[in-house]
Amino acid sequence: MTLAENANQRNYQHLVDQLYQTSDFDFVGVALQANQAPHQITWQYVAGNRGEQF
Q1: Which residues are CB-neighbours of 29 under 8 A, at least 6 positions away?
Q2: Any residues with CB less than 8 A from the CB of 36 and at least 6 apart, and which?
Q3: Dist. CA 8–CA 23, nearest whole Å
Q4: What percent of the chain has pLDDT over 70?
Q5: What mean pLDDT is reported for the chain?
Q6: With bands split at pLDDT 50, 70 and 90, how would you rate the model's confidence at 3?
Q7: Spatial distance between the Cα atoms of 30 and 16, rounded to a whole number of angstroms
Q8: Are 26 and 54 in contact (CB under 8 A)?
Q9: Is a pLDDT exceeding 80 seen at residue 25?
Q10: Which pLDDT score, from 0 to 100, does residue 10 have?
Q11: CA–CA separation, 11 vs 3, rounded Å?
């Protein structure tokens, strides 16, 4: 991972955290699809309830 990629990850998480803190949501998250087969979708950046159902 490059420094730029690492910085982008922190920025995305920061935005998710800000949205969670300033809104009335129980959960805020960004799910991304993998580039490689089987193209799974996983939560990459989340804030709030992190139980098994997210």
Answers
A1: 16, 43, 45, 46, 47, 48, 54
A2: none
A3: 22
A4: 81
A5: 85
A6: low
A7: 8
A8: no
A9: yes
A10: 81
A11: 12
For residue 7, the surrounding DSSP H or E stretch is helix 3-22
Type of residue at 32: L
Tokens representing 26 are 């129980």
Class of residue 47 by CB neighbours under 10 A (exposed 0-12, middle 13-18, buried 19+):
buried
Give 8's strand partners: none
pTM of the prediction? 0.70
Q: Residue 28 is encoded by which pair of tokens?
A: 């805020």
Q: Is the pLDDT of residue 53 over 70?
A: no
Q: Which amino acid is at 22?
A: T
